[in-house]
Design a protein that fits this description.
0% of the residues lie in helices and 49% in strands. The chain contains no helices and 11 strands.
Length: 128
């Protein structure tokens, strides 16, 4: 399985921006769909965004649509989540995740149970 590590979190004021990175190990990152999830204190983990193995298809939670952009660079084994216009309610630990996508295409899962590899997370705190 691919191993993942997030970076790029931090403290930012409302309206600010952050770019999260997800570093993947292993030579087969381009055979995995990738997703970002977040979990705030006292809340369940929630889906944020997903991208297909080729990067051709993306999907976003309504709460972040138009503010967050998911992308990937398979040549570098990297995934990204660009976040702008951040709000205090975006405060959470953000995790990247990977799911095998052996059939390619534009498939990406949105349920956390469909992802088999997870990073430890990076804290994002948005102050008001």
């Amino acid at each position: 399985q691919v191993q993942l590590a997030e970076s790029g979190g931090g403290l930012v004021q409302a309206g600010g921006s952050l770019r999260l990175s997800c570093t993947a190990s292993g030579p087969t990152f381009n055979t995995y769909a990738m997703g970002w999830f977040r979990q705030a204190p006292g809340k369940e983990r929630e889906f944020v965004a997903a991208i297909s193995r080729s990067g051709s298809s993306t999907y976003y939670a309504n709460s972040v649509k138009g503010r967050f952009t998911i992308s990937r660079d398979n040549a570098k084994n990297m995934g990204y989540l660009q976040m702008i216009s951040l709000k205090p309610e975006d405060t959470a630990v953000y995790h990247c995740a990977a799911a095998p996508a052996p059939y390619g295409g534009s498939w990406y899962p949105v349920r956390d149970v469909d992802y088999g590899s997870w990073g430890r997370g990076t804290q994002v705190t948005v102050s008001s």
